[in-house]
């Protein structure tokens, strides 16, 4: 699961001591940056391990309100590292570790924003789909290239299919066709596609809006959005009423209502946004 075409299948060995994923925290925003540009930010064993570790650190850090997944180089993520996948038995394939990363992003109690200045392929698109918000430069491209190299977009389907309608999924999964950021936004894979010089500002706009939300309320809302509802409407209302009343009466809800009455920002809003 890697970008195809001249030069895209070349993997570069990177010394283990050189970190491939970086974490920086400022003003409540944790930026996790994929930094393996010579390998098109492919999901090598080292990159997967460091991405998991940095996600864990950002989620556990009380100072972090929003997580941004970014990248260096011209490619966001090219998918699984094919050099490592060649000649490996099924039980030793790196893709076996990938579900844990996608679930980590999908279930993170803190909103996760994908920031793409360049293309995503295969597993990289799965990461984009797992994020709550995804913003890309309008020059970025996407493809589910798995079938063209004889594999199946199975694992990423868990995060991608909830974003797409059935017709779009059948077309793009079966053809492996490359599509642009504008179409990615039209079909629900992206929230926004902007010019490259607007990318930083657009990501900041989303991050700032997310940081205005109460941490526990955001976590509960994320869980609500991804949870299966009871088939009976009465049961669904009862479940949602319990959740709503709990948060109205909770510490955050009470603080939020006081802040609204006093015409001030709630206590959880980062100082930089007050």
TrEMBL record:
Pfam families registered for this protein in UniProt: ECH_1 (PF00378)
InterPro entries referenced in this protein's UniProt entry, alphabetically: ClpP/crotonase-like_dom_sf, Enoyl-CoA_hydra/iso, Enoyl-CoA_hydra_C, Enoyl-CoA_Hydratase/Isomerase
GO MF annotation terms: catalytic activity
The organism's place on the tree of life at top rank: Bacteria
Family: Belongs to the enoyl-CoA hydratase/isomerase family.
Protein name: Methylglutaconyl-CoA hydratase
Organism encoding this protein: Saccharopolyspora spinosa
């Amino acid at each position: 699961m890697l970008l195809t075409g001249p030069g895209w299948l070349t993997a570069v060995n990177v010394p283990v001591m050189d970190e491939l994923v970086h974490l920086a925290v400022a003003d409540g925003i944790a930026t996790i940056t994929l930094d393996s540009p010579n390998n098109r930010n492919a999901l090598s064993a080292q990159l997967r391990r460091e991405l998991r570790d940095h996600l864990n650190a950002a989620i556990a850090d009380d100072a972090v309100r929003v997580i941004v997944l970014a990248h260096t180089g011209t490619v966001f993520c090219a998918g699984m590292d094919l050099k490592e996948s060649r000649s490996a038995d099924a039980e030793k394939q790196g893709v076996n570790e990938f579900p844990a990363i996608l679930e980590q992003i999908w279930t993170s109690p803190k909103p996760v924003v994908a920031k793409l200045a360049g293309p995503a392929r295969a597993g990289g698109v799965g990461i984009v789909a797992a994020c709550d918000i995804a913003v890309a430069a309008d020059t970025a491209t996407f493809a589910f290239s798995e079938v063209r190299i004889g594999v199946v977009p199975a694992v990423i389907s868990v995060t991608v299919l909830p974003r797409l309608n059935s017709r779009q999924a059948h077309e793009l999964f079966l053809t492996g066709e490359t599509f642009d950021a504008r179409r990615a936004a039209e079909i629900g894979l992206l929230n926004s596609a902007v010019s490259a010089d607007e990318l930083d500002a657009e990501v900041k706009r989303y991050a700032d809006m997310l940081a205005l939300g109460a941490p526990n309320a955001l976590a509960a809302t994320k869980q609500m959005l991804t949870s299966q509802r009871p088939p009976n409407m009465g049961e669904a209302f009862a479940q949602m009423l319990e959740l709503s009343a709990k948060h109205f009466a909770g510490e955050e809800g009470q603080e939020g209502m006081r802040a609204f009455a006093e015409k001030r920002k709630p206590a959880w809003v980062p100082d930089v946004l007050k």
